[in-house]
Every structure is written in structure tokens, then in C-alpha cells.
TrEMBL record:
Lineage: Bacteria, Pseudomonadati, Thermodesulfobacteriota, Syntrophobacteria, Syntrophobacterales
Pathway: Cofactor biosynthesis; adenosylcobalamin biosynthesis; cob(II)yrinate a,c-diamide from sirohydrochlorin (anaerobic route): step 6/10
Name assigned to this protein: Cobalt-precorrin-5B C(1)-methyltransferase
EC numbers for this chain: 2.1.1.195
InterPro entries, sorted: CbiD (IPR002748), CbiD_sf (IPR036074)
Signal peptide start-end: none
EC primary class: transferase
Catalytic activity, reaction form: Co-precorrin-5B + S-adenosyl-L-methionine = Co-precorrin-6A + S-adenosyl-L-homocysteine
Gene of this entry: cbiD
GO molecular function: methyltransferase activity
Species name: Desulfacinum infernum
GO biological process, one term: anaerobic cobalamin biosynthetic process
Similarity comment: family membership: Belongs to the CbiD family.
Region named Disordered: 1-22
Keywords: Cobalamin biosynthesis, Methyltransferase, S-adenosyl-L-methionine, Transferase
Amino acid sequence: MQGKGENGSEDGSRRKRLRTGFSTGTAMTAAARAALRRILSGKAPSWVAVRLPVGYYLAVPTAIVAATDLEAEALVIKDAGDDPDVTHKAAVLVRVSLTAVEGQCSEFPRAHPQASLGEGAGSEIRLCAGPGVGVVTKPGLAVPVGEPAINPVPRQMLAENMAEELERSPWGVPLESLRTRGSAHSGPEAFGRNRHVRLALPRIPGLSARVLLDVRVSIAQGEELARRTLNPRLGIHGGLSVLGTTGLVKPLSHEAYEETIAAALAVAKAGGCPSVVLSTGGKSEKLARKILDGEPDEAFVQIADFFAFAVREAARMGFDTVVHSVFFGKAVKMASGLPYTHAHKAAMDLKVLVRCGERVGAEPRVLERIAQANTARHALEILLQEGIRDVVRAVAEDALRWSRRFAGAGVRRLRLLLFDYEGRILADVAQEGGAEENTA
């Protein structure tokens, strides 16, 4: 996500119409569909139409990079539009092999219920995480531990599109030939143990045999790219996640960031963390870690500007304690009761500083200087010059009161660490059972 820094300053960029892209789940599905079409028809499509979860089709450019009678590998270049996504322009490679079988495909234990798309469907996909696609190692995510980090919606999207391709294709390769030749692979060992999952295909009208599709998904440089995401912290090892709930990527989407926050909180909860530390970015998290050095890595969650959403989610998940780590500019917006603190949506209003100053008995001369300050940073400089730290503490207390309003009774203890722009602690305020406690 881009925008403004965690200290509350504007980025000044001109707003423009932003281009929508498509998700890694759509890229995976398009490549798989193109590879299957090459097997079935002998033709190498330059694009395929992918049915999205939102109900319509999207044309996605594809390229076939390798093919035999029973196996093909296709490439799709992920296009995230104007979203600042680390997966933008990533090469998504999908290898598909086709086998027709007489009986039920039952070599693998059934996946979790969300993966099952049709009761009694005899045809299946054996989905494998290839190089650059992560594997889940911690509980709390939408995918069970040990499975490829390919989320439920992309899995469903893949199964539905592959079934549709099987139904619509002219079947240039006869099923009898598939029966006699067998699979292009020797079995699950060819795909790597503990990196595959079985998906049931919907029933396919007119298909005379049960079909097994081996699908291996890889992302070029995925392991390197994943280091720039939250995957290591979420316990996803070995590469990127294949994501998407609509199949599309909306630039700078609130929904995408909220999903990331919720996932990080879920991992912390599943890991047994009683407390969670909500920071506005990397700098404030680093400062909080120095003070809270006993907290596990999973407890630290960066929430950017999503103040109210993060607190409500933490309360809903049942965390005992929520700690905020913020710089002064964000604290001022939190103290104003703004649920979302980005500059474009929440202009800085220094009236809250004046009210805090009045509450602690600041001189009218100082209140006037604060009211005329250009920025929160400027106002803080004035307060520190005047030696009035009580106003700073009052801001922290008001921010914590709003946190309590958003959290309700779901969180027992709230705490706020307030830093100046050089990283020095300005205030450490806690609230338990409705009463504020000043610890610094």
C-alpha cells in the first residue's frame, strides 16, 4: 500500500483514474485453462476467457511454454493494474497433465470442506505447490497447515474453469488413448509430498470417463518476492500465496488491506498470543519491539490507517490486550475519533489539541500557538518548547478512549505507546476496566 507516511504527512500525489488488474488466482486459473486446452485441442491459445467468482469472464493473455500429448505448461504474466503489488508482472507457470481413469480418483485424503465442489463427482484435480508457491505452516489461515498456500476461492475458481474447459473442448485427444497411455506422471511423488491437495471437480455433462488432472503451480522468483510480503510472519514458507476473492485487483483497495490485517490477527490468535500490538508501519513496530521485547513475532501487526477496523477485529477474535504503537500525527487523528486515518480521507484537525490543552489548563497564549500550527509535528514542537507534556499525554488518553469505543467490552486491557518523530517515547498510557493508567 502506498499513500502517506505513518507520521501523518500528505504524499501530495495527484489522484487519477486507476487501472484494475487481476489476482494471482486468476493468473493461475488462466494458465491452467490454457494448458488444458492445448492438451485437449492441440492448439496453443494466446488468450483464454476465465470465469471469475463475480460471475463474468475476463480475457487473460497466455503462452504455452511446453507441451506433449498428455501434458502442457502455460505462462501468464500477473497484471495487478495500478495496485502497488509485489506480484505485479510475476510469471505464473502452471503445468497440467491429464489422465483418464476407470474408478474413483481416491489416492489422497479429502481436503477440507471448502475444497469439495460437487458431491459424487468422480473427476478430480491434484493441486501441487511448485517452486515459488508457499506452503502453510501455521494455523489460523483459510488453508490448513501443510497445504499449498492457494486460498479457497482460487481453488474453487480453478476447479470450475477446468470443468468448463473439459465440457466445452472438442477433445482432440481420445479418451481411449488416454486410458492406454496412462498418466504423464508416476504419482504424487513427482509433485512432492505434503505440497498437494485434492479438489473434486463438478460433474461434467457428456464426459464418459473419470478424469484426473495433475496441476502444478509455480511462480518465478516467488520465494524472493515473498520476503517482501507478510508471508514469513504468517507462517507461509517457500513462496507467495495464490489469493483473490473476486478474481480482480482493485488499486489501493481497502478490502485487500483489511483482509491482510484480519489474516495477521488470526495467525496471532491461533498461535496463542493473548496480546496483539497494532502499529501503523514498520518504524512504529520497530520501536514497540524494543519496549515489548517479550512478545512473539506473530503478536506484531501493521495496520496502517485502519484504526477502527483493526481494533474491532482484535476484539471480535477475543484478544485480552491490544497495544497501539503510533507517532504523534496518527495519535492526534485517533484522538479525534477518526476510524480511518489516511490523509485523503481524514484531514488533520488540530482542534483536538486545543481541547486537550484546555483540559490540562494550558495558558491561552499556548493554545493560540497550537491553533495556528501548520501540522501536528509543528504543534508538538510548540508543546515541547513550552514544556507542556500534559497535553501530549491527554492526546494519548483520548486516542485510547476512542480505541475503547471501537473495541467495546471485547478487550480487557488497552495500551498506547506514543512516540515523537525521532523515536523517543512521549507517553505510555494504559486502560483496564475503563480507568486510564499513566505509565509514562
